[in-house]
Amino acid sequence: MTKLVIVESPAKAKTIEKYLGEDYVVKASVGHVRDLPKSNKNAIDIENGFTPNYEIVAAKRAVIDELKTAAKKADQVILATDPDREGEAIAWHLVQALGLHKAGAKKSGDVQRVVFHEITKDAVQEAMKHPRAIDENLRQAQEARRVLDRLVGYDLSGLIWKKVRYGLSAGRVQSPALRILMEREREIRAFKPEDYWILTADTKTKSGDALVLTATEEPRDQKRVDTIISLGEKAEWPVTDIKETTVNRQPKPPFTTSTIQQAASTRLGFSPSRTMRAAQKLYESGHITYMRTDSTTLAAVAQKQIVSVIESEYGKEFARPTAYKSASKNAQEAHEAIRPTDVGKQSVKKGDDEDRLYELIWRRTVASQMVPAQLSQTKVESIPDAKDMPAFTVTGSRVIFPGWLAADPASRGEDVTIPPVEKGELLKLKSLTGDARQTQPPTRYSEAGLIKELEKRGIGRPSTYAAIIKTIEERGYVLKEGRTLMPTDTGDVVSTFLETYFADYISDSFTSEMEDELDEISRGERDYAKTLQEFYTPFQKELAKRSKDAKKITDLGPAPKEFPCPKCGSPMVMKLARNGTFMSCSRFPDCDGARAHDGKEVTPPEELGKDPASGESIFVLEGPYGPYVQIGVKTPKNKKPRRASIPKEKDLSTLTIEEALKYLSLPRELGVHPESGKAIIANIGRFGPYIGHDGDFRSLKTDDAYAITLKRALEILKEPKKVGRGRFAKKKK
Predict the structure, then answer these.
(1) Residue 190 pLDDT more than 60?
(2) CA–CA dist 241, 380 (Å, integer)
(3) Which three-class secondary structure string do you get for 188-249?
């Protein structure tokens, strides 16, 4: 009896195939096979209960044909897509696309659905013993999200095209995320810094140990600072209080999708999408449980294995089995947290990202089942015996018992030790200084910070966070500077428009409540069509009203393309420079008009002179690898203008047109090789000057790329080619 198992990814298919017998054939759908058409005209039949009109994804037609052939040969089809709404939807789409629901096709008993939360031999074989039907509630919840996002996205985007600028767009969850970033940005813009001072007393104990204390008061004017310093220098500094406390530092729950993205960003510097790619590979290879989850639950069998590893690695006194309750009210407790499938394996050899992420998962999982860490905290206070003086304090801490920090030492931090000191003891003041500071505006959100905020406000779900951030980046609404997300002028304009005219539909409450309703559909507590109708009817009325009310975006601030060039009047376009965004004439460099943005002036590119051969201008420009010269302008007909790097040691202020033409003379064709008949060229690349012939490249150590002759190049090519550290390549047989 032949059984066809269909999963989502080829990597997952290979892993599962190892665990099943010869009767099984495992193939991959490579993700979704059907989707809504790109055109919105016939995508959704609103009148007929919001019925989506799906079509096979063009790139998946060959996959569908292959799966159809395999299904006809099989006695049974088993759909083993991922254990979430997306996976349930893909399973349902496979039934439709392969025609397994039609009369004369496989009987319902011959098409089964199985799920497993980890890809291990035991989990896969156990799942095969418990097949079920496709869960229509989960499938409809995913469909409702897809349809809802399409309705909101197309209708709002259409209005933005009319009122703001063509090509911009809005989304049901992306727009609230952008709004959160813009709210913080406005706080930063409105922030007015204030001066304040940090007062530091450098003292010595009676035993001669150094002790540095900081004032609890942060004065706001220089006069108060001078008064405290003057009084403090004349006063005595008794130790007025010593407090010693022991605190327990609790371990954190095992990872969910949200928390692993936050931790990987903070600890590893990974973006959410990079984290999920690495996690996907670990899951498909059978190393971790399913990585899209909002549950902190651990299976009882896994918990026992974890405790056994803790007792073996660290000792019985370190183990404390703990069941965590998920923070989200809609968390699916039947699912598990992200954990290693075999906690006895502390590392894997899968690749740098996967190895580092696995170690993070292993440490968090093991630490979650360990006792709290015990820390001793000591606070020393000194109040100088002068009138109206603030208290000066210092706090130290040290680990008494590491507990869970033994498994996750990176979370420990550094011990701050305070020297022995007694209450009533007089400290000797060495110096008392004031350090002028300014209050800082709120910080912009990082990717991890935004994910935490989205989760806190109930916007989106674990599987959508990475996609939300990726979408607003790709649309040009935010720029990522390091880990910081900074809204662009375009993002500002779009968010301001939506906040002005559609505040209710991008509010926290609306977005969160809609997520709750989608969760209710997944549990069978809400009707699909009724839910969408309750949303769409008032939304359409509001859209029609706002379409009339909404003014052109110029009332909110000119759109980038509506800026006239200060020199020629042509439209200005948004550009990004290292020192901020700015407007540049769309006819640049024929017209070098530019308008400053972000409070910074922008210098137009310099025209060095004309190319004698073509008569076109030669410009000095700055690129990611340094300065370069370019002939002419990039146009649809001339997509790759001729360019050449300027040597790093060259002073740009002394650059001449003759030197630019010399740089532009590369690559030089020296002639043809007498044996191959193929050209030999000389050029300068990222790693210095070289000659090249038929895929054979040789670095020039002493020869000049601008002056080398064909004869000299042939001599170099005859020399044995060095490989690595002085090793010679083997001669071809």
Answers:
(1) yes
(2) 6
(3) HHHCCCCEEEEEEEEEECCCCCEEEEEECCCCCCHHHHHHHHHHHHHCCEEEEEEEEEEEEE
Question: Burial level of 392, CB count in 10 A (0-12/13-18/19+)?
Answer: buried
Q: Give the whole-number percent of the chain exceeding pLDDT 70.
A: 87
290 given a catalytic annotation:
yes
Q: Which two tokens stand for residue 78?
A: 């088993």
Smallest CA-to-CA distance from 98 within 70, 124, 135 is with: 70
Residue 678 structure tokens: 């193929």
Rounded to 10 deg, the angle between the 174-190 and 489-501 helix axes is 110
CATH architecture classification, 195-250+374-438: Distorted Sandwich (2.70)
Higher pLDDT, 604 or 278: 278
pLDDT at 161 > cutoff 50: yes
Structure tokens at 27: 């193939």
Q: Is 318 helix (H, G, I), strand (E, B) or coil?
A: helix
User: CATH 1.10.287.370: does it fit domain 144-190+460-554?
Assistant: no
Contact 290, 335 (CB under 8 A): yes
Q: Round to whole Å and give the CA distance between 144 and 130.
A: 28
Domain 257-371 has CATH 1.10.1740.10: no
**Rounded distance between C-alpha atoms, residue 19 and residue 119, angstroms:** 9
Beta-bridge partner residues of 683: 690
Which position has the higher pLDDT, 578 or 233? 233
What is the Rg, in whole angstroms, of the alpha carbon atoms belonging to the chain? 33
Asked whether the beta carbons of 620 and 652 are under 8 A apart, the reply is yes
Q: Which pLDDT score, from 0 to 100, does residue 607 have?
A: 74
**Range name among 32-41, 449-458, 523-532 with the lowest pLDDT average:** 32-41
Tokens of 371: 């006792």
**Structure token digits, residue 553:** 């975006």
Beta bridge partners of 77: 4, 111
Tokens of 486: 């900074």
Q: Looking at 54, 290, 465, 663, which residue is catalytic?
A: 290
What residues have CB less than 8 Å from 723, skipping those under 6 apart?
729
Q: Are 693 and 708 in contact (CB under 8 A)?
A: no
What phi and psi values does residue 329 have, to the nearest 5 degrees? -70, -20
The count of other CB atoms within 10 Å of the CB of residue 601 is 11
Which residues neighbour 458 within 8 Å (Cβ) at sequence distance 6 or greater?
508, 511, 512, 515, 516
pTM equals 0.70
Check if the beta carbon of residue 546 is closer than 8 Å to that of residue 159: yes
User: Is residue 329 predicted with pLDDT exceeding 80?
Assistant: no
Domain-wise residue ranges, the chain: 3-134, 144-190+460-554, 195-250+374-438, 257-371, 561-638, 668-728
Has residue 705 got a pLDDT over 50?
A: yes
Centre a 10 Å sphere on the Cβ of residue 62 and count the other Cβ atoms it contains. 9
Confidence at residue 599, expressed as pLDDT on a 0 to 100 scale: 39
For residue 126, give the 3-state DSSP assignment.
helix
Mapped onto helix, strand or coil, the DSSP state of residue 499 is: helix
CA distance 662 to 682: 13
At 595, is the pLDDT very low, low, confident or very high (cuts 50, 70, 90)?
Answer: low
Angle between helical axes of 465-474 and 447-457 (0-180°, round to 10): 120
In the chain, the N- to C-terminal Cα span, in Å, equals: 52
Q: CA separation (Å) from 673 to 72, 327, 354, 707, 712?
A: 59, 72, 47, 18, 12
CB atoms within 10 A of CB 568: 13
Domain made up of 3-134: CATH architecture: 3-Layer(aba) Sandwich (3.40)
Instruction: Answer yes or no: are the C-beta atoms of 507 and 467 closer than 8 Å.
Output: no
**Window from 142-146, 339-343, 487-491, 591-595 with minimum mean pLDDT:** 591-595
What are the tokens at 21?
């017998």
Q: What pLDDT score does 733 carry?
A: 41
What does the pLDDT read at residue 579? Answer: 39
